[in-house]
């Protein structure tokens, strides 16, 4: 497919897991020869697929372990900044140095005092500030919608 970013010499690649395909139906048969495929960096695509699979497996593990939605969201936030982040039962382990236990608040961050612990605590603080500001924004939008509805009635 042409690139959704609009960049020349780029293309969107769609991968389909054929294990989940039960039937293929040909809508029409093409007679013209398709344009040549752009060269692909197969190792880069394989690394991307492996990384995506690992992230999905991590999410699935968290859900199956009964981790709260807040814990899953915090894990995703930390993982955006620090890739060395994994689950250990219901605990989040960051850089093998910091452990965050449920209910995943700043005071639940444990580890050897130092820059790693300090950095993780800052990420956790910012995450919860952002979540709270998002809730406030949603409440104000809901109130505005309610006012607009009652004014138009």
Automatic annotation (TrEMBL):
PROSITE patterns: AD (PS52001). Residues 38-132 form the AD domain. It comes from the Eukaryota. InterPro entries: AD (IPR047574), Lsm12-like (IPR039683), LSM12_ABD (IPR019181). PANTHER family: LSM12 HOMOLOG (PTHR13542). This is LSM12 protein. It comes from Orthonyx spaldingii.
